[in-house]
Amino acid sequence: MSSLERGLKNPTLSKVDELCEVMQVHPLTLLALTYGLDARGADKLLARVQRELAAVQEVPSD
Fold it and tell me: Does the residue 5 lie in any domain?
């Protein structure tokens, strides 16, 4: 954990997922905390994520 905090290591997504399981938080919660978001900032982030997910799902796949 110390190596991550000091920027000495870059975790893979699977490692972030494992870390979140241990911390008992959702990966998006950890991401929001990483960006220093408070509840209002998190609300804005989640609204953006919802819009972007909807837009991506509307794109037809080949």
Answer: no
